[in-house]
Design goal:
two-stranded antiparallel ribbon, elongated
């Protein structure tokens, strides 16, 4: 069931999902070495286990729950012994602390935000995790927070039903510890993700919890098959067939970019990456009408203001690249309305110039330079136009302005163009 579960599709088919599998390999290796250390008391196992935890943490930060998992394991299997303040816990928490310190130094200015606002997200993500582990139907590409909330959300309600069902099952078989452990194992990865400033729930995040679930299912199967073996086997076979069918359907979504981005848009009608990715796919394949239609659909459906600005700018640039300058002018004017600035004015000026409306273009260039005086591409375009109309003095003036700009703010092609022009003038 672990191999056939539909949530595993993303881990295998999506290049970004590969980190989950690699992280979990080192994570579980470290955990097994810790168990070996407990049974043999050989420090070599503990040392290598620490190294495995360190590697898994470097691969993906959700491995930070490793020390908590060790404590859970000891509380469960080593009841009655003194566990708190153990030196081995201090070692693993020390590794985590060192990692966080280095992280803060390397990613200075991008601190991880933790606040009480994560508590509602934690509850929702916990329930969503249960929902998509037990009922992996209608799988989304991802959820963005905040979502619709618990009331009125079918997914959350299904998750609550799943939690209640599992809780009743474990109480019925008098194995409450399994229920508690299952809940904690499932909750741990969600704990970090819920408090992440850009809250996202993707099905590939279920890869690690599904390992714990698979182990628990083996125990459940062993307990229940003793009483009604035929029923258990029929139910197990039915679940495996269902998982296989859903997984084959999910795998087809990842067969090409068109199917993938269409799925992203289907699961999130306001997904900017979905519309942008699908439009770029059409563009690469020469489907110009589909490219334009996809950008327009995205502009109409995206709720986020920055997303609409991005798609409007890309549509305007696409029109210009296609030589449809009247349409690019309209789109750049809309972009200037949404986000006034040098980029929009540069597009307006370029479109006007290509349409032969030179005087209006020159005026637009001047306005754009007033708005964005350090835009090297804008200065280079205006200098070239002045040169083409014999205004050498103006061309030199604007090319020299490019040379005086900070290097980090200067486009390399504009810089090379300015240097070549000024050398020829000399």
């Amino acid at each position: 069931m672990f191999a056939l579960h539909p949530a595993q599709t993303q881990v295998v088919a999506w290049i970004s999902g590969g980190t989950d599998a690699v992280m979990l390999f080192f994570f579980l290796t470290g955990f097994l070495l810790y168990i070996k250390y407990i049974s043999t008391n050989k420090k070599l196992y503990l040392t290598v286990g620490m190294a495995m935890f360190s590697v898994s943490l470097l691969i993906k930060e959700t491995a930070a729950v490793f020390p908590a998992l060790l404590i859970l394991y000891d509380l469960w299997y080593r009841k009655g012994r003194k566990l708190l303040f153990s030196k081995r816990y201090a070692i693993f928490f020390g590794i985590l602390l060192i990692y966080l310190i280095f992280r803060a130094q390397i990613f200075h200015g991008t601190e991880l935000t933790i606040s009480l606002e994560g508590l509602p997200k934690l509850t929702e993500q916990f329930l969503l995790t249960f929902r998509y582990i037990i009922f992996p139907l209608d799988q989304p590409f991802y959820f963005n927070y905040p979502s619709t909330g618990i009331i009125g959300s079918a997914g959350i309600i299904t998750g609550i039903c799943a939690v209640l069902f599992v809780s009743v099952f474990f109480i019925t078989i008098s194995e409450t510890r399994f229920g508690i452990a299952w809940a904690i194992i499932t909750l741990l990865p969600s704990l970090l993700l819920a408090f992440h400033p850009n809250g996202v729930f993707a099905l590939r995040f279920l890869y690690a919890p599904l390992v714990g679930i698979a182990i628990m299912l083996c125990i459940i199967y062993d307990l229940t098959s003793q009483h009604r073996p035929r029923v258990v086997k029929i139910v197990s076979l039915g679940i495996i067939i269902m998982m296989t069918f859903i997984t084959s359907k999910e795998t087809s979504v990842w067969s090409d970019e068109k199917s993938f981005y269409a799925m992203v848009i289907e699961t999130d009608k306001s997904s900017v990456p979905g519309y942008d990715g699908l439009a770029r796919y059409f563009s690469r394949n020469g489907n110009h009408m589909d490219t334009i239609a996809t950008y327009q659909l995205g502009i109409n459906n995206v709720d986020d203001a920055q997303g609409r600005i991005l798609l409007t700018r890309k549509l305007a640039q696409y029109y210009a690249n296609m030589g449809l300058y009247s349409k690019s002018l309209s789109s750049f004017e809309e972009l200037n309305r949404l986000s006034p600035g040098g980029t929009a004015m540069l597009g307006i000026a370029n479109s006007l110039y290509m349409m032969g409306r030179v005087d209006e273009a020159m005026s637009a260039y001047r306005k754009a330079i007033m708005i964005d005086p350090e835009n090297s591409l804008l200065l280079a375009n205006f200098a070239q136009i002045n040169d083409s109309y014999g205004n050498k003095k103006e061309a030199i003036k604007y090319f020299e302005r490019i040379l005086n700009l900070p290097v980090e703010k200067t486009d390399q092609s504009a810089l090379e163009m300015a240097k070549a022009y000024l050398r020829n003038v000399e």
